[in-house]
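Both lines are retained for reference:
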Amino acid sequence: MESGNKVAKRVATFCRSRKITKIAYASYGKNPDGKSQLKNNTARMVRFLQYRAELGIAVLLLFSTLYFNSPVEYDNTSSRYFLLSAVVDYGQFNIDIYKDQTIDTSSSDEHTYSNKAIGTPLVAAPIYWILRNLTPIQHDMPLSDRARYICRALTTSLPYAVLGIILFRTLLGLGAAPVKAFWTVIAYAFGTISWIHASLFSGHQMAGTFAFLSFAWIRMLRSKPSNIVRWFLAGFLAGVAGLCDYTAIFMAGVLAGYAFIKKSHWSQWIAFLAGGGVTAVILFTYNMLCFGGPLSFSYAHLVYPEYAAGSHHGLLGIGMPSPTALLSILVSPAHGVFFIMPVLLMSLVGWWVWIKRNSEQSEAWVCLVIVIGYFFINAGYYCWWGGWTYGPRFLVPMLPFLTIWLAFGIDRMGGILLLLV
């Protein structure tokens, strides 16, 4: 780490080179209070540069995902939209009215339901209700194009932009240089398939967003041990991630372990579990009402014959990892995470650098457990390739945790960063 004087001189030189004469004069002028002004001006300049970087990240991520809109919804997103409409427009959980418009369905007691995780429609429900009751969209047909676009923008794209800012701040807190932290976020945003899913009404990106927000929140709470409400919210965020993508329940469990390590009092961990417990109650209630039992998930009641047969493999379709599937999701041209997103190769080096240089060891191990766990879950799933999709879509929720290593890998392989992006 550089000393405060060196950092101050670098900032002052930066300011002077750009004709910010007032700050440069305060740094090197004859003012007897120059050192104090230097410290204050340096702090202000650092904050200014950080806020400017965060604004740039937010604008790039938000407007790039808002600019594009798929003219045709596929079954994965349509099934979620249909559940959203059923709840808000018709006051029911079944999607009988839409059952002939998608194959992503489940069946119970002669009713048809969405087979998707309920988190995305749940988050979008208040937004869609406002659109359907308090705006001119109330005169549109249910699920009009503009209603879908606004719901997707506010539930998937906007949190994606927030994730970019939180990822940047987390990297700075872990000791990454600001420039490297910035380019790591850009590499994640535009060098991975996360961007694709941030422009869709899907659960993968939302799960990754909420899980990483929970992770960052827990890390921040070390300095605020007495605030039980914030620990509750951290658990709630982890739980929402699990609602958005059921594989993220695994991440929620890992984050519960991380919260246990970071707690300074049992009440904090209990508050975290209580926050996650709220989402568990929501899920169990939905399962009970729709499928007859709290642990009876939609994937156990699939309608499409091929999906139904696969779901009986292992636990809801997830069994022992297949070596062939694991190799494919690592390096194959169609689904390989390191073939399609080669910038992430630097993350492999970055984790080792992080362990060697950084004092925050628990964060590195939490990220490693999440990443490896997701590879094994994906490799054990009967439909590991994810159907008609580009890249390993089931790995999207863990990509923020894999990308975080990238900032430290740049130290060793920074010369090929732009090439890999």
Q: What stands out?
A: The chain has 20 helices and two strands. Residues 1-30 have pLDDT under 50 and may be disordered. The first helix runs from residue 4 to 17. The longest strand covers residues 105-108.
